[in-house]
């Protein structure tokens, strides 16, 4: 008969300790590798983010080619008038601060997403194309046309908040290295690629004391704050670096803790998330002086594809929340226009140089 020796209770406990510890360590490692960050450890931090210099691997040559074809048509900063594709004329106000010098790498265009995976394959072709990739390509080509910096930020997931909140700490982090941070949602695109951000800063009177500028939202009851004022949409944000701007972003980031703004935790996961938090709390704290700027909905929100296009027509930045796949056709149009303009203007040599040069790189 086979006899089994019974281990004392303390031996059984000891035998289980090491496997349990190993499982816990592996579980924590997996949890953090997935980008989940617990609030009691870090709050909302940018420390687990990854930065990419382009929205798609290997796309730099193609994007630079298209940008080079657009460069001859960049709107001069000293030209005080502009007519958009839809025929609307804009004139700069001579009383506004005139940003008359290119800002170059002092400006960064950023995309932020928790879902991004660089991957491989022909992501710009056919069924592989999606609205997020097309929107980011619009942002990237725009940055190359005007000589701005660009970053695609793969942000960690914050399980205790809705994922749109990630844009707040990522913008705050980007501000530390740039004078201006321009953030766009993936379904928001630059409507006029030739228009520099400096000209728009002048148009919207974004002077040295402005902390952030956001586009007014379209009129709907769900877009009103507690006092009945229209929210400002966080799908397009311009932030200007200053100690007070960083203070604003810190307050915005911490808003749902309820420490400074009791009740803000209501917007932790409830629509409109960080947008409602800004509209209900931050803009009342910081707009007692001329520190915040509302961009007209006609200029920086909506699109030509909605019934309210006369009020929110996306003249300079379209936000395509109701027709996201238009970002794909718009990218195709951006490329086609760059080529057709060269042909129309008879500048075949420039087009040839732009297309042939990448072959030798």
Automatic annotation (TrEMBL):
Pfam families: Nucleotid_trans. GO terms for cellular component: Golgi membrane. Keywords: Glycosyltransferase, Membrane, Transferase, Transmembrane, Transmembrane helix. It comes from the Eukaryota. One of its GO terms (biological process) is protein N-linked glycosylation. Gene3D superfamilies: Spore Coat Polysaccharide Biosynthesis Protein SpsA, Chain A. One of its GO terms (molecular function) is glycosyltransferase activity. Residues 163-289 form the Nucleotide-diphospho-sugar transferase domain. The chain crosses the membrane at residues 12-32. Belongs to the glycosyltransferase 34 family. This is Nucleotide-diphospho-sugar transferase domain-containing protein. It comes from Plectosphaerella cucumerina. The lineage of its organism: Eukaryota, Fungi, Dikarya, Ascomycota, Pezizomycotina.
């Amino acid at each position: 008969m086979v006899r089994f020796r019974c281990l004392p209770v303390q031996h059984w406990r000891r035998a289980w300790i090491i496997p349990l510890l190993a499982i816990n360590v592996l579980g924590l490692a997996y949890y953090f590798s997935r980008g989940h960050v617990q609030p009691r450890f870090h709050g909302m931090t940018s420390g687990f983010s990854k930065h990419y210099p382009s929205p798609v691997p290997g796309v730099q040559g193609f994007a630079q080619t298209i940008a080079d074809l657009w460069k001859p048509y960049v709107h001069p900063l000293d030209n005080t008038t502009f007519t958009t594709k839809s025929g609307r004329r804009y004139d700069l106000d001579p009383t506004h601060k005139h940003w008359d010098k290119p800002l170059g790498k002092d400006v960064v265009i950023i995309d932020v997403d928790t879902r991004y995976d660089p991957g491989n394959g022909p992501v710009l072709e056919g069924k592989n194309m999606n609205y997020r990739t097309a929107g980011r390509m619009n942002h990237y080509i725009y940055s190359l046309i005007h000589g701005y910096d660009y970053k695609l930020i793969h942000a960690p997931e914050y399980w205790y908040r809705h994922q749109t909140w990630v844009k707040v700490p990522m913008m705050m982090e980007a501000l530390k290295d740039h004078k201006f941070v321009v953030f766009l949602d993936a379904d928001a695109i630059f409507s006029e690629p030739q228009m520099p951000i400096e000209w728009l800063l002048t148009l919207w009177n974004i002077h040295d004391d402005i902390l952030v500028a956001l586009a007014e939202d379209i009129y709907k009851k769900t877009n009103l704050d507690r006092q009945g004022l229209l929210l400002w949409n966080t799908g397009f944000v311009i932030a200007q670096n200053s100690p007070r701007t960083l203070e604003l972003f810190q307050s915005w980031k911490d808003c749902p803790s309820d420490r400074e703004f009791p009740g803000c935790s209501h917007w932790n996961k409830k629509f409109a998330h960080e947008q409602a938090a800004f509209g209900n709390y931050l803009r009342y704290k910081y707009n007692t002086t001329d520190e915040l700027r509302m961009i007209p909905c006609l200029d920086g929100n909506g699109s030509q594809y909605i019934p309210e296009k006369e009020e929110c027509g996306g003249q300079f930045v379209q936000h395509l929340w109701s027709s996201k796949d238009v970002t794909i056709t718009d990218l195709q149009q951006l490329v086609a226009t760059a080529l057709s303009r060269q042909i129309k203007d008879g500048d075949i040599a420039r087009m040839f140089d732009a297309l042939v040069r990448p072959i030798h790189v």
